[in-house]
Structure formats: structure tokens, C-alpha cells
Write a structure and sequence with these properties.
The structure holds two protein chains of two kinds. Chain A is mainly α. Chain A is globular and about 55 Å long. The N and C termini of chain A lie far apart (about 80 Å). Chain B contains four helices and no strands. The longest helix of chain B is centred in the middle third of the chain and has 30 residues. Chain B starts with 13 loop residues before the first helix and ends in a 6-residue tail after the last helix. The chains are: A mainly alpha, B mainly alpha.
Chain lengths: ~290, ~160
């Protein structure tokens, strides 16, 4: 992934040879800059005017992505750096990107044929299945378990292509999960609050259990590594546990905020009607 | 409903007001337990060698549920307030009931019956257990008392 190999890593060339043979260090920053620039262009040209808070959320997401693929990719062998990268790529950056509502923005500025295509895509059955909170939770937490509990982690350490693929999966699955729970973008057939809260609960609990399990088994997990520092893996597991908490907290806030801002709270309208009727009767009697 | 004497011009939702208090009370007490006893005092450990995998699983679920209950509880609270359907007396009563109930449950079931973990390790446990459970019981009873008085107020301030 990077060419910058710290001197300490040269001593163990076997495990990290793959990193040294990677492309230019700052290459992954270009797609991030493209994402930020494209969004800004679209937001400026939106005829209806675009909410600045959405732009800010998107830019925060892009900044977190940039930190993950830029500076944090400089220390390839450190499990703590890896874990921070995974937290940013898979949990924190996706939430910022989702809150930026890029699909809504696209629907605002794109020409009619593109809008029709997006509309058709959003109504496609396979997408509803894929974007179901339970599927998304399985993909994100299950995917993480698959990487960390199998030799996939060790393999990704050696092969840059696999490494990038795993990172892309983290980002895509994290985006899908955040969107399925709390995205402001249109999501036809999104299940109700109970299902979404349940999916968040299961995913967060799975994440907490996985990180404690990794902490407990730091001598042997992730399997297949030739050189390992259990202490570093233990602190990476703690970072995963507490970082996961922060991500869960933010996701829960986003999720319940969509409920709080739901379009027409029926009971609220009823109460208002009732209250005004009662006020009327009060003025009559007194 | 019109011939019921109501304490204020608002229509308080009795059930929701109590339940939202209970939910926030449980979540706050669980969070206090986690933050104060696990992290600040470090009386409990991050992970015990002896912790069985079932406890690991239940711990993870409880931990995740606590965050969701806290956030969800406050949004529910805000929603009730916005609709003018909140009775703050009932919510306070529910809060004390939930907090005390959780502490007592943690003290009796988790610590003593299931023996998931203890309050502190390497010390004589009895005083800790007594303080823990008595504090829980006091909170619980205070909650019951507040709810009781709020309810009898609502029912027309009659015999009491």
C-alpha cells in the first residue's frame, strides 16, 4: 500500500514485503479529493439551494477518509494504526458521507435520464434486500469478523490488492449500514424503527464481543501472522471496543433523529387538536 | 376525557411519561456502572480470564443496549415534551424506579446469583454488597413513592 517503510520494519522484510512494493503513497487521496470536489460542484450548482449542513457532513466524511488512507497508511505494520484506519473507513467516515445525502443531491442536479435511472435503481428488489438493515449489519460486522478471525488478515498484509479490496469493503458495507439505518437519502421499503434499532443493537453487540474476543486471544488472533506483538494487538482491540462505542452512539443519534424529525407525527397532530378543543371548552366554562 | 379534572392544561401521557423515565434511569445507572466502576476506578477488569463466553456475549449485548436506550430515551423524552404529553413527576418517579431497579438487579442477580463478576476483587465483599444493594433499594423505594404521590395527585387529589 505504501512505499514508506519505517526502519524498524526493514528488520522483518518477510511479513511486510508487500507494503514496500506498493504504488505511490498519496495515490489513494485522489479519489477522496474527487469525491469532495464533485460534491461541492454539485452543491453549488443546485438550483434549489443545498443545505450547508449536508455539505459539512460530506466534507467531514471525506476528511476522515483522507486521514484513513493518507497519514494512517504510513505505518503499515502497526495493528493500532490499522484499527484506527478500519474505524474511520468502516464506521465514522461512512456516517458523514451518508448524512451528506449524495443521492438526493444527484437527483437535484442530474439531467432527467440519470434521474430516471437512479429512480429505477432505488426501486429494484435486489437493492431492497441488500439495503435491509439486517443484511447491512451482517456485511459490516460479519465482514469484520471474517477478516479478523480467519487468515484473510494475514493475506491482506502481504497482498496490496487484497488489502485495498478489504478497505473498500469496509467503506461500502459501513456506508450501506449507515444508510439503511439513518440515511436522509431516499430508501424505499426501509423497515420500521424497531427493526433498525434491533439491527444496530446486534451489530454493536457483535462488534463489542468481537473486540473483547480479540483482546482475549491476542496471542493467536488474527491467525497466520509470522511476527506478532500481542501487546499491540491488545491495545488495538481496546481501541476497536471504544471506537465502536463512539460509532454506535453517533449512529444511534442519527437514527433517532430521523424518527424525531419524522414528517407527520399523527399523535402530535391529534394532541394539538385535542388540546385546542379543550382550551376552547375551558374558556367557555370559566 | 373532557370531564376528567386534569392537573394542567396539557394532556399528560401517563404510561409514556413513566416508561421514558424508567428507560433513562436504567440506561444512566448502567452507564454510571460502566464508566465509574469499570473505567475510572477499574475495580472491574476490561476482560477476566475467567469470563465465560456467555458472559462475554451478554456483556456485549447489555453494553450496546445501554447506549441505544440512553439515546432513544432522550429522543423519546424530547418528543413527549414537544407534544406537551410529558408529566415530569411521573418521569422522575420512573427514573428513580429504573435506576434503583437496575442497581438492585445488578447487585443481586449479576453479582450473587449468576456470579458474572463482583464489585471489587481482593477485598472483603460484604460491606460493598450491602452498600450497593441498600443504595439500589433506597432509589427503588424513592421511585415508588414519587410515582405513588404523582398518581394520587392525578386522580383528583382525592383521599390523600
Amino acid at each position: 500500500m505504501t512505499v514508506a517503510v519505517p526502519p524498524a520494519m526493514v528488520a522483518v522484510p518477510l511479513a511486510h514485503a508487500g507494503h514496500g512494493a506498493g504504488g505511490p503513497t498519496w495515490l489513494p487521496l485522489f479519489p477522496v479529493a474527487l469525491l469532495a470536489g464533485g460534491y461541492l460542484l454539485a452543491a453549488v450548482s443546485d438550483p434549489r439551494g443545498w443545505d450547508h449542513r449536508r455539505t459539512a457532513a460530506w466534507l467531514v466524511g471525506c476528511a476522515l477518509l483522507a486521514v484513513a488512507v493518507g497519514p494512517l497508511a504510513q505505518a503499515p505494520g502497526d495493528p493500532r494504526g490499522h484499527m484506527a484506519q478500519h474505524l474511520l473507513l468502516g464506521m465514522l467516515a461512512p456516517l458523514g458521507l451518508v448524512l451528506g445525502a449524495p443521492v438526493t443531491l444527484l437527483l437535484h442536479v442530474a439531467p432527467a435520464p440519470v434521474r430516471r435511472l437512479v429512480g429505477r435503481l432505488l426501486r429494484a428488489r435486489p437493492l431492497h434486500l441488500l439495503a435491509h438493515p439486517v443484511t447491512a449489519a451482517l456485511l459490516t460486522t460479519g465482514g469484520l469478523a471474517l477478516v479478523l478471525l480467519t487468515p484473510l488478515y494475514a493475506a491482506a498484509e502481504r497482498q496490496p490488492v487484497l488489502h485495498h479490496a478489504v478497505h473498500l469493503h469496509y467503506l461500502a458495507a459501513g456506508y450501506l449500514f449507515a444508510w439503511s439505518l439513518a440515511g436522509p437519502d431516499p430508501a424505499p421499503r426501509r423497515p420500521g424503527l424497531a427493526v433498525r434499532v434491533g439491527a444496530l443493537l446486534v451489530a454493536a453487540a457483535g462488534h463489542a464481543v468481537l473486540s473483547k474476543y480479540l483482546y482475549a486471544q491476542a496471542e493467536t488472533l488474527p491467525p497466520g501472522l509470522t511476527d506478532r506483538d500481542p501487546e499491540a494487538f491488545r491495545s488495538a482491540a481496546q481501541l476497536m471496543y471504544y471506537g465502536g462505542d463512539v460509532a454506535e452512539l453517533l449512529l444511534a443519534v442519527a437514527l433517532f433523529a430521523t424518527w424525531y424529525h419524522r414528517p407527520h407525527p399523527r399523535s402530535s397532530a391529534l394532541i394539538k387538536k385535542f388540546a385546542s378543543a379543550k382550551d376552547g371548552s375551558l374558556t367557555e366554562t370559566s | 376525557m373532557a370531564d376528567h379534572p386534569l392537573p394542567s392544561s396539557r394532556v399528560a401521557d401517563v404510561r409514556s411519561s413513566t416508561l421514558v423515565g424508567v428507560l433513562i434511569g436504567i440506561a444512566i445507572m448502567a452507564a454510571v456502572d460502566e464508566i465509574v466502576f469499570h473505567q475510572l476506578l477499574a475495580w472491574h477488569h476490561f476482560y477476566d480470564r475467567s469470563t465465560p463466553s456467555v458472559a462475554l456475549l451478554s456483556d456485549g449485548l447489555l453494553h450496546a443496549a445501554e447506549v441505544i436506550a440512553l439515546v432513544g430515551g432522550f429522543f423519546w423524552f424530547a418528543d413527549l415534551r414537544r407534544r406537551g404529553a410529558l408529566s415530569s413527576r411521573l418521569a422522575w418517579g420512573g427514573f428513580l424506579l429504573g435506576a434503583g431497579g437496575f442497581q438492585l438487579f445488578d447487585g443481586l442477580v449479576d453479582h450473587k446469583v449468576l456470579r458474572l463478576h463482583q464489585i471489587r476483587y481482593g477485598v472483603h465483599l460484604v460491606p460493598y454488597d450491602v452498600v450497593w444493594n441498600v443504595a439500589g433499594a433506597v432509589l427503588l423505594l424513592a421511585g415508588v413513592a414519587v410515582l405513588w404521590s404523582a398518581r394520587s395527585r392525578r386522580l383528583g387529589g382525592g383521599p390523600r
